[in-house]
Amino acid sequence: MSGPIDSLFGIHARAMQARAQRGELIANNIANADTPNYKARDVDFESVLRQSSGAAGPGALRTTNVQHLDSSGSSAEDAALARASLKFRTATQPSLDGNTVDMQREQAAFAENNVRYLASLQFLNNRITSVVRVLRGE
User: Fold this and answer.
1) 3-class DSSP state for residue 42?
2) Contact, 20 vs 36, CB < 8 A?
3) How many domains does the chain have?
4) Residue 42 belongs to what domain range?
5) How far apart are CA 43 and CA 82, in angstroms?
């Protein structure tokens, strides 16, 4: 995402998207806790956020020609970023059926992710409220 809306909301909109993706992965882990050979997955939130914010890192693409396509903000790019940062968790106590989901760890991660998602949502809500007040002349 890049543009006037992105500059208005800052990092919180991207953080909410990344937190939502992480929440889906953790929910999948919890749902598959009894599935044999299921490997618990997670994303590195910081790297997803860094990549989606356009911070250049190793392997970052550059547009060196005006005819290069800009794919910023596309859902395909967001999915690619999440896949690039997808990690498999190592089990602290592996089960006999090969499942690596640790329910306590997943529930704690889900709760933490939810709290952080709600914090970003609150920041965005406050920002939107401020913009509406400015537009109304309050």
Assistant:
1) strand
2) no
3) 1
4) 4-136
5) 7
Largest CA distance in the chain: 64
CA–CA separation, 66 and 56 (whole Å) = 19
Q: In degrees, to the nearest 5, what angle opens at C-alpha 56 toward C-alphas 51 and 58? A: 90
Cα 111 from Cα 52, distance rounded (Å): 24
> What pTM, to 2 d.p., does this model score?
0.71
Note the pLDDT tens digit of each residue in 17-55: 889 999 999 999 999 999 999 999 998 878 777 776 665
Residue position matching structure tokens 């709760």: 111
Are 72 and 101 a contacting pair, CB within 8 Å? no
**What Å distances lie between residue 75 and 8, 36, 78, 80, 132, CA to CA?**
20, 31, 5, 9, 28
